[in-house]
Every structure is written in structure tokens, then in C-alpha cells.
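Run log, item B.
One chain of 96 residues. Sequence copied directly from the ordering sheet:
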Amino acid sequence: MSLTLVTGATGFIGRRLALKLAADRLHVRCLVRHPQQAADLVAAGIELVEGDVSDPIAVDKACAGAEVIYHLASVLGPRMCPQKCMLSLMLPGRGR
């Protein structure tokens, strides 16, 4: 069975996508910063990798074997994360 990775799976859209993929019986893995916020994902049979998209080691671990990646990790806007922070979140994983 192919593996699908979802980042941002504890957020509004990412959580719903991960749960839908799992309900469709796909093998789903999620990269999450706070596993304690992902109990419903674990209950749905989703594999978790603890880490942050800014951590290349965590990203490599999460991506290992994935055929499809939904990169939904983000922040709500400049008040939550200045532009420098936003760029560090979005750009490093592009080429991985």
C-alpha cells in the first residue's frame, strides 16, 4: 500500500484531509509538532512522526517511503509569524 504524508495535520484542513484519507483506507503518516493534539489521528490508524517542518531530520524521517505529500503546515499570518519566520517554514522543504 502506498504511503501518503500530511504536514499540518493538527490544523483545520490538514486534520480533515488526514482523517478522510485514513477513512478511505490509505496508509497515512503525519508530521506533527504536538502529538498530544493528534489523539483522533492515532485512533484512526494514522502513523505520527513527531517533529517540525523546519527540522530536516524530522522531514526526512516523515517523507521516507511517501509517494504522495500534502504540505499543509502553515501559520495564520504575519502576527503569528513574521515574514522571515514564514519563509523559513515554507521554503526549506520545497526541494526535498
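Observations after the first pass:
- The domain at 3-90 is CATH 3.40.50.720 (Rossmann fold).
- Residues 81 and 87 are 10 Å apart (CA to CA).
Flagged for discussion on Thursday.
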